Amino acid sequence: MDGVWAARLELRPKPQTEEYARGFRGAYTTVLVRCGTAEQFITAASEHVGREGFEIAKVETLSPLGSGLFEINDTLADLAERTRDYPVQWTTFHLFMGDA
Model's pTM, two decimal places? Predict the structure, then answer.
């Protein structure tokens, strides 16, 4: 888990995305990034979710994965290991509807 940071993120779909056209106005997910600082995490996560058509709306619980703030289950352990191949990983998206 060394060198991996994690945060629970609230994301907003960009207006040109399919998710936005279908009425979704946000999503929650946990993102893991192989990096050394919170600033590096934000930069890498923002670039990654931006390529996927989202923007970060809110950051919760940003910390090194091994800090004890996250319950490390099999999914997070697997994703943390996968950051060795691709430095940004995320859990299942939980999309939600909302007013435009």
Answer: 0.89
